[in-house]
Amino acid sequence: MIRRVDHIAIAVRGLAERLGFWSDAMGLEVGGVHTVDSEGVKVAFLPADDTKIELLEPLGADTSVGKFLEKRGEGLHHITFEVSDLPVMLEKLKSKGVQVLGDMRVGAEGHRVAFLHPRSAGGVLVELVEGAESHEPVDDGPISAGSAVLLYLREPQEKIWGVLRRLDASGATIEGIDLASFDDWVAQVEREEPSVAGPSMLFVPMIRVEKMLLDRSSGGLPSLAERFFRRTGRSVQEVIAEAAAEADDPSA
Ligand code: ZN
Question: Which terminus of the chain faces fewer neighbouring Cβ atoms within 10 Å, N or C?
Answer without folding.
Answer: C
